[in-house]
Amino acid sequence: MSGMSVYSSLADPRIVIEFFNSALHCRARNVILDSEESQTLRNALGPSVQGPFRIELNEDQESVLDTLITAKQNFITKKEEPWDYCVARSFGKADLLSYDIHADRELSMMLSGEKPMAFFTVEEGFAFGDLCEQPFEQFVADGTIVQSTFLLRTSSQAAVTYVVFTLPREVWRFFSLRFLKTAKVRWDKTLERLEGLLLGYSDEQCDEYLALFWPDEATPLQAPRITR
User: Fold this and answer.
1) DSSP secondary structure, 134-171, as one string
2) Which residues, other chains included, contact 218 with Cβ-Cβ below 8 Å and sequence gap of 6+?
3) What is the phi/psi pair of residue 49, to 5°?
4) C-alpha distances in angstroms, 216 versus 62, 211, 219?
5) Phi-psi bin for 17: left (phi > 0), alpha (psi -120 to 50), beta?
6) Pick from 91, 99, 108: which is nearest to 49 by CA?
7) Which of 58, 105, 166, 205 could potentially form a cystine with 26 if both were Cys, beta carbons 3.0 to 4.6 Å apart?
8) CATH of 3-96, one of 3.30.1890, 3.10.50, 2.40.50, 1.10.3470
9) Tens digit of pLDDT for each residue in 103-126?
10) Nearest-angstrom CA–CA distance, 93 and 228
11) Is the pTM of this model over 0.90?
């Protein structure tokens, strides 16, 4: 699924580079270019990077990127952390957090035991495969990961399917999440924190997230509602 739904765009000139492993389609690492480096890459990318954007780089664009990041001495080599392709996107609000959110690396984190649960929302007329390239299905088939779903109707009566993945010993988190999402109460900071804890974030990370996205409990500021 698109990271654009997670990283709500800011008026910040910096560009974020995401490195992906094609086997799992998960992010290996991010690199944030400074303003000058970002402008150099913008010049190479052309008009496609006006406003919020997220694009996979071709070989010519990667060569520009290679020069920029090697100069910063933080380029991630394929020996250190395997990656096959990279994506450039606009800097977003979630990039202000001191920790890396789990979006676009849920599967790799679950396979390593770092993340107990992940969920994705699929709107009516779409299939899970339309929104997420990570191959959860093969690990569901061999029992490494458990898949569960539930249906929720929004205030406009549109049907949204929650596709939930848990580690085998963490299936209880699915039932807790379903209870939170289907409860007839107003979503608030407390419920947002509980959701974060169910997804494997620490108390400290939830504190930071809520301070950034929910400074006023009555008015959440573009909090990522698709996945975290």
Assistant:
1) S-HHHHHHTTSSEEEEEEEE-TT--EEEEEEEE-GGGT
2) none
3) -105, 25
4) 41, 9, 5
5) beta
6) 91
7) 105
8) 3.10.50
9) 999 999 999 999 999 999 998 888
10) 13
11) no
